[in-house]
Amino acid sequence: MTATNRQVQRIQRDLTTLEQHPLNFIQNLALSVNDEGLQQITGVMLGPENSPYTGGYFRFAMSFPQEYPFKPPNIAFVTAICHPNIHSGTGETSDNRIFTSWAPKITISEVLESIHLLLSSPNYDTPIEAETMPDKSPQKAREWTLAFAQGP
């Protein structure tokens, strides 16, 4: 069995588990394969309650390197989001503990839970773009949520 086949089997297994035990903050998950044969998952993450992102619908894409599950997937928000640990231009995430302590046993569900937790608990000490949230105020994040993340 090739690494690509193992990768596909692992992704399919994680998605089956996710279907059997859905996360209430994830909608419209879809698996696709791009022209290079790389696997990608797209979906919508609902903003956490009691946060500047409450009521927001954030589209994301999760792509998998050839070395997955030995290397973590890449996550990028497609919907514009104002967050100290998410790049406002590319949507890529940073400062995520799950990626710095990555292990092959970590599932897609755990990655999604970690990203959702990052929305609830931003790390202002290591911002990706210091100018995005200079005063650590959630007001700008709320404004972006209302402007860019409304509707499914």
Tally of individual helices:
4
**In whole angstroms, how far apart are the ends?**
39 Å
Protein structure class: alpha+beta
User: Domains counted in the coordinates: how many?
Assistant: 1
Spell the H/E element sequence.
HEEEEHHH
Overall body shape: globular
User: Care to count the β-strands?
Assistant: 4
Strand content: 15-25%
Widest beta sheet: strand line-up: 1-2-3-4
- Rg over alpha carbons: 16 Å
Mean pLDDT score: 85
Are there runs of 5+ residues with pLDDT below 50, and where? none
Main β-sheet description: 4 strands, antiparallel
What is the CATH fold-level name?
Answer: Ubiquitin Conjugating Enzyme
What is the H level of CATH, i.e. the homologous superfamily? Answer: Ubiquitin Conjugating Enzyme
Structure in a nutshell:
With 152 residues, the protein is of the alpha+beta class. It has four helices and four strands; from the N terminus they run αββββααα.
Descriptors:
4 strands, Ubiquitin Conjugating Enzyme, globular
Q: What does this 3D model show about the protein?
A:
This protein has four helices and four strands. Strand 1 (26-33) and strand 2 (39-46) form a beta hairpin. 30% of the residues lie in helices and 18% in strands. It has a single domain (3-148), classed as Ubiquitin Conjugating Enzyme (Roll). The protein has a four-stranded antiparallel β-sheet, with no helix packed on it. The protein is globular, with a radius of gyration of 16 Å. The chain has 152 residues and is of the alpha+beta class.
